[in-house]
Design goal:
5-stranded mixed β-sheet, 2 domains, alpha/beta, single chain, 35% helix, D-Maltodextrin-Binding Protein, domain 2, 6-stranded mixed β-sheet
Length: 330
Amino acid sequence: MADIPLTLAIFDYDHVRDMSTGRVKPEGIDLTVINHDVEEIFHRMMFGQEFDVSEISMGMSTSRVSQGDAPFVLLPIFPSRVFRLSSIYVRADGPIKTPADLKGKRIGVPEWGQTAGIYTRGWMVHQAGVPLKDVEWFQSGINDPGRQEAAKLDLPEGVNLTVVTDRSLTQMMFDGDLDAALSARAPRAFLDKDPRMVRLFPDYRKAEQAYFEETGIFPIMHTVAMRRDVFEKNRWAAMNIMTAFEEAKRRSRDRILNVTASQIGVPWLNHDAEQVNRSLFGDDWWPYGIEGSRITLEAFLQYGYEQGTLHKKMKPEDLFPEEVQHHFKY
């Protein structure tokens, strides 16, 4: 039987790169890999289903799954995971100096359904003790006005979210009309070192490590989707793709740990991976599959339901088809 041709749209990650180059090939599949920025990939997959397999936002995709009308199935492959206490930006001269100060303030988000914001609001509620209804929420682009919400929301009672179309969140902060912004993408003004904007957690690494040690949550930003019609015709392909992702990740880990030559140009990367990552996360510091990420998945689904991005309560097994819920091991 000839290999079936499939397309995969994904960002250029080191832990996926061997699939892009063809060094790792999913069994039975002739894979064409297309690299784009993640925002373009998400838009084209969510609204046009242009690719057979695609990286996709956890926030967007789980919202669609919860509504029962998703034109795709999800695979428990998590190409992007990022701790998000680094994504809280405040005015340098503003009233927010500690997490408790977020209560009663005006906070902006690029989209309520953005994955990073779901995790950060979950932290606000469950770790910082700031209820969603005790914040005045605003939605606009972080750098440019007019960004639109991609997810269909079912906001909880008492939550006030105002859509702003004429100013960006950054401009609102500088005008004194916003106290903070939660954004996965760093604001342009912050990257340009504008002194008017700072992080709530300057030493975010320390805060994020403490968060992980307290909760066991390693935030998953993106997962992988397969078009439903492709999956229904070739159910076996889902696990074969997952196996290829695992092999590409293993090869990336070997490059990171290589002490013979610096395959990745970051000083002491192998030491940090060996000493820090393994001590915190274990041998597989970037797990795929449900079990290795159950704590994170359960927390994210709880946050999504509490915040109105999910339309019903869900458990991790509700996200993924049976074919990929258990991975073969020797």
